[in-house]
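[step 3/7] fold_predict: job queued, chain A
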Amino acid sequence: MAKLLDDVIDVLADYVEAEEYPEVKERTQQRAKATHLKALELYKARYGKSLYE
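[step 4/7] structure written:
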């Protein structure tokens, strides 16, 4: 569960920090968003609810 939560939450910091690096911003943000959404989907499937509820 810890790794899954890390993938849901920690990648959001990568997304925000990418703003400071225009040369990798788009690629980093796309990867972070994809990781976040996939992990959130897996979390909901395993635990039956959203982290935001």
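[step 5/7] annotate
The helical segments are 2-17, 25-47.
The mean pLDDT is 89.
exit 0
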